[in-house]
Amino acid sequence: MNYTEPNQIIIQTSDIYKKFRKGEFISLKSTFRGLFEIFNPYKYLLTNQQNNSKSSKEIEDLKEDEFFALKNINLEIKKGERVGIIGKNGAGKSTLVKILAGITKPSFGEITTSRRILPLISLGAGFDEQLTGKENIYLLGAIYQLSKKDIDERYETLVDFAETREFMNTPIKRYSKGMKARLAMSLILSFNPEVLIVDEVLAVGDVAFRKKCIEKIIEMCDEGMTLIFISHSMGRVRACCNRGIIMRKGEIAFDGEVEEAIENYLSNDMGIIKEKKIATVEKKIEILKPQNIEIIREKNINPGFERPTLINLIQHLDAGIFESYPGNGRKWLDISGNSNDVFLDDATLFINKAGGYFEFDGISSSIFLGAKPYLPLGNNPRTIEIWALPHEPSLSQTLLSYGNFEDGKKFAITFSRDEFSLAVGGYRYGTKEISDSIKYGFNQISIVINKNKDETNEILLFLNGDRIENTYKIAGEKKISLNTIFDPNFNHLGISYKNKLYKGAISIFRIYDTALSEKNILKNYFANKFRYNHL
Amino acid sequence: MSNSETYNIWFYRHTIKALIYREINQRYKQAAFGWLWSLIRPLLVAIVFTFIFGNISGLYSSEVPYSLIVFTGLLPWELFSNVLIKSTTSIIRYKKLVTNVSTPKYLFPLVASFSCLFEFFILYAITILIFLGSNFPLNTNILYYPIFALTVLAAGLSIGIWLATCTIWFRDIKFAIGNFLQILILITPVGYSTISIPKEFSYITDLNPLSVIMDSSRYIMLGINKPALSSLMSCTVFFLILLFTGFFFFDYKKSKFADII
């Protein structure tokens, strides 16, 4: 057998089924059934003779409290392949790798492997809390059949990799979770196995260490290692794998290119709106971009207000005309009923000092800030709706992005001197009745700052204008949980970063909304990719 | 999955070594008296036995000092009961390894029982000291005693391997085993020798395969209680059958361990 041949199949499974029982033996009846199953000589003889291959009738013959964790898995993994297995919780990913690693056996079906497989399923599974870090390294190494000499050779490099040198003579029980994980991880990665299975163990450890591990894994793959990688982080799967497998309810739903797999998984399993779709919101601005815009000069802006960004905004979006309106009376444009002749070339609005945006024929269009927007010109929509933000932005606020969520709710993201602000819902103008404000929040947002750099940045979060106690330190991406979901008081969320906004500093701003839809589908409300000059 | 290395113990020598080290280390780490605790129980039992059987019950009458009778009985008994308990609970104690590492599962009861030799050798040394302390002549056969100890270990493992498999389904065994051993120590000739049992109760020891082990132990060390060849043979066959069937049973059920445990 030629071991260097790249296309050699090293793991092959045929019709693997794995049956699990839902309950335990709690009642007396099930205990007797369990006893009978354990001491059933007929079964023993049968399985030995037939070597686990059963007829399809037997496969279908499920008892009432049994279910298949894996169904009909046919998988071929060739040498050097980097397979990413993705799927929802409970899709059977871990069961599959446990079978591939030989930890448990399939109920039916066969698996042939021609290599020793190193499973990295639970970090520090062999660790003994009482022993020191060094003793544990030798213990865990021995569990993976390394001699003392073998470990001696790797010891220095792996301690350097784990960065735990000063604690090697401390009992593991005093280690932090992260340190334990680093130690185990660095030992496993020093093995140079032929097949490595990584089952979502990279989630522990900080960003820098995770990155180091991924780099090491990729390096090992380049040297010819076969990788089976399970992760819920699409970024890691994308980084490590070239083949993607989607598991759904115990079956392989997709097997192919990793990019396709990720896209398929995100849209079908996670219900995440792809960035592409959101882009249509931005496109709408272009479609409805009014022609012949006259930009009101600065002289027209009330000198009492400092709005350096306003002109930028207008230039940026080419979207609206703003006129100073010194009065502070409260008016709004009544355009209902006689829609054809309301098209005013220079209507003025004063809406509650808040920003907002227009909707023409149900499509969001131009935006306005603060008090005094002009209706954009140039097209003749049948209906106009004006949406105002539910909060009062500061005067120098810039509306960066706005749009509709899938369920029709509006959002807008604004930026003032040092703070991003996200507002959801809002008051609806433009029809006779003013609907109740729809207020709801989010439970998780994701912020990406300086994605390419490792430096840690401090950000502050403001909820309804009040600072949330915690200061978040962020390097790269961070998800922050906020209990604003269905909070009747949720108004807007502000994010302050370094008190200044640098170009490209905040590159992606995503909001996860898990509970809004009853199906609990994770939605990725991608708001914008804004790159702004510093202000 | 067929793996030619699975049954190659030599291939797993490092694993076995490290696990035995861990087993022993785990027992006595962070205890100020350390391994000295392993002596407390046998010594307490010896004191109680000396009090009950040596003084009160009148079961004892021999030219051999009673302390030697007790210790030659306790030596195999402690090994047997330790091996039985440790191997029975081995799989559930190594739960994390069973469910996460593809180490062959038979290593765990094996490692658990061999680690009991540590306590055995401590008690063995104490027994030799007691021999030296008493005026009873020291038999050279005592040097071969560790080989006999291995057969006792196998006897303990033969039951332990069965129970280890069943414990995965029924944790009841973990609780029952302690109670069972407490009764067994009384009906087994540990604190008394078989010759001092009245004829009408001798069937208890005749039916108990452990009494052959106790007899053999005393025969090796003291030269008394020579076991009959027939009972020696039947005892050996009994434990050998248990051991082999136990390993087959274990091997047959091992693929379910990670799912059920």
Describe the structure.
The complex is a heterodimer of chains A (535) and B (261). Chain A has 535 residues and is an alpha+beta fold. Chain A contains 12 helices and 23 strands. A 6-stranded mixed sheet of chain A has the order 5-6-7-3-8-9, with helices on both faces. A 6-stranded antiparallel sheet of chain A has the order 13-14-15-21-18-19. In chain A, strands 11-10-12-16 form a 4-stranded antiparallel sheet. Chain A starts with 8 loop residues before the first strand and ends in a 7-residue tail after the last strand. With 261 residues, chain B is mostly helical. The longest helix of chain B has 32 residues, at 229-260. The mean pLDDT of chain B is 85. Chain B is globular, with a radius of gyration of 19 Å. Chain B has one domain.
Fold topology:
The complex is a heterodimer of chains A (535) and B (261).
Chain A: E1 9-21, H1 28-38, H2 41-50, H3 56-60, E2 66-78, E3 82-87, H4 93-100, E4 108-113, E5 117-120, H5 133-143, H6 148-162, H7 177-189, E6 195-199, H8 207-222, E7 226-230, H9 234-240, E8 243-248, E9 251-257, H10 258-268, H11 275-287, H12 308-317, E10 356-360, E11 363-368, E12 384-388, E13 398-404, E14 410-415, E15 419-424, E16 427-429, E17 444-449, E18 457-463, E19 466-474, E20 476-481, E21 492-497, E22 506-513, E23 523-528
Helix pairs in contact in A: 5-7, 6-7, 7-8
Chain B: H1 13-28, H2 37-56, H3 66-93, H4 95-100, H5 107-114, H6 117-133, H7 145-169, H8 172-187, H9 202-207, H10 209-222, H11 229-260
Helix pairs in contact in B: 1-5, 2-3, 3-5, 3-6, 3-7, 3-8, 3-10, 5-7, 7-11, 10-11
